[in-house]
Structures are given as structure tokens and as C-alpha cells.
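Form 7-S
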Amino acid sequence: MQQFSEFAVNHWQLFLALAIIIAMIVREPLMRGAHGYAGVGPMEATSLINHQDAVVLDVREDSEFKTGHVLGALHIPSGRVSGRINELEKYRNRPIIVACHSGSRSSRICSLLRKQGFEKVYNLDGGLLAWQSANLPLTQK
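Output:
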């Protein structure tokens, strides 16, 4: 034990770096719990869509949605979601992936959905920018 203590004192920078890395690893799950929803990347989102019948809720404005969206996405602009919660009731037991351009508007909607009692709510981390960066398709239909 004395050798360990001596090593730690002589290499305090390594232990500081280790503490920072551990804090970063632990922070992400704690932050997800604080918000009540999880963030998913594009690949995790496609897995939820394909294997758990997840619904993609696109909260971008009409003009943004028309430029391209995830196939089968439900479109409700972020400013109108609170007034149209009843349209989402039929998806209450399915995972809902909320998407916007970059992930900030969708995070607010995720919080709103959690407050309304939706349990399986996911924010598309990085939004449709991340979706496109992952070379995943968008449709204009």
C-alpha cells in the first residue's frame, strides 16, 4: 500500500487525468437521468426504429421538414407540440425519438413529453445533422 501511495504522489498528474476521465464517464448517465430522457445517436435510433417500432417525431418547422426528413417521421413543429399532445397518445407505449436540426429544440420537446407521462422518449443527439453525417437517408415524400 505504501508503494501505491508513493506512486500516486509522484505521478499526481496521471491520477488527476484518471479522475477527470472517470467523472466524464459517470456524468453522461447521470445527466440523462436528470432530464428523464436518453439521447441516442443515429445508429441507435435506426436500431430502435427497426427493432422496437420507434416513432420519429420531427419538430422542425414546415420549411425545414420539406427539405428532407426521416422516412415515416411524424411532423409537429416544436411550437405546436404542447397543443397537439393528443395526437401522440397512440404512440405512448412505443419509443419516441424526437428530432430537430441539431438536437436543441428536440431536447426541450423530450422534457415536455416526459412531463406528460411518456416513458420511452429519446433525443436524437446532433439532430438531423448527425443523421446525415452518418450517411443515413432522408426523404422529401
